[in-house]
Please model this.
Amino acid sequence: MNNFKKAGTALILASASACLTAGELPNAENMQGLQFNFSNPGARSLGMGGAFVGRADDATAAFANPAGLTTLFSPEVSGEYRNTKYTTGYTRSGSYPDNLDSGSAKDSVNNLSYLSYVHPFEKFVVAVYRHELMNFKTDFNTDSINLNPGDTFPTNNGIDTNIASYGLSTAYRVTDKISLGASFVYYDYSMDAYTDRFDDGFLESTQTQKGNDSSWGATLGAIFAVTERLNFGLVYRSMPKFDTMYEIFDFDDQEGFSKPFQFEVPDVYGAGLSFQASEYLTLNFDVVHVNYSDLASPIFDQFSADDPVSQPALDGKLRIDSGTELHFGAEYILPNKPIVLRAGVWTDPEHTIYYKGTVDGNYEKFNDAVFQGSDDETHLAVGIGFFFGTKGQLDLAADFSDAQDVFSVSGVFRFE
Model:
């Protein structure tokens, strides 16, 4: 058996007894393309590039910015159905460092992504909702990578992660120009991920990350009517942590171990402007900061341990950067027609695991080869909406980027 391959498995097992340090994610291959979706719910928002923090004037405000619920004056229900097509990049094979071969896995998820009910009272508004914050799955296979010297094991990898939220929101109009809102949110989480390693066609070891947990979070929001035509919105989302279990079993040595860690969902801060340019045209602009680095505090390395195995830890070398998204969207109501057109664009900064540091041995080479990060993304969005009197509306939208395409249909029904 190749020395690097065998040493790698031995180090994994040594990690169990030598350094069970706390970590937020393992550097298993299945974590290469983990994708979050922090876009606001609803086809209307999606069609405007997700720019909605300063507008937030429909039932999806319960998630996007609960302060916006004060714009609603009759009870209403809303729902959204989404199809998301993921493209996950990964290192497939090749020779380190200059001849690595990249691959991409394509997967699709269909889900009822949002449901809500809003009920206004005389001085405040209450809403309940269910929203799928994360629904991601992918699977891919890799061949052996030549690390010069040594080779990695070929692997089969998969991950299926879901986070659903159940929120109770309330909003209060403090003055004619100031509205405040808050949501208290229960989160339900599941993760089922694996990496199987093969030696000469036989299963050598298997690694899994499994979790079924629940936790609480909160959202705070505010909207200020700066002028009759200009709104300014703020939102902060405090996100939960979930208990997850990492396990490995070596079939050659008939040994294994389990290690608990926490999967931490990044907190979100947002600010937005909404400008009523004319009777028919509205322009929205949002700045949203996502603390993706919460996921990597730190990433624990499956190939490192303290004595008696003398391998340096990779603390600080495996990273996920926080990022700031810029969203711009427009909504145009066709004169004398119950139709509205929408378009938007937004930037999605790179936020996958990557290696940055010196490369002194095969374990550093492995991480540098596998965790190369990705590029910043630019999303383009379009949408259309249809009004049915004052009772309801139907919205359709699509959002396109290299990493994912999203198609949405949503509707609102008002009880007047």
About this structure: Residues 119 and 384 are 26 Å apart (CA to CA). Helices lie at 3-18, 43-47, 61-64, 362-370.
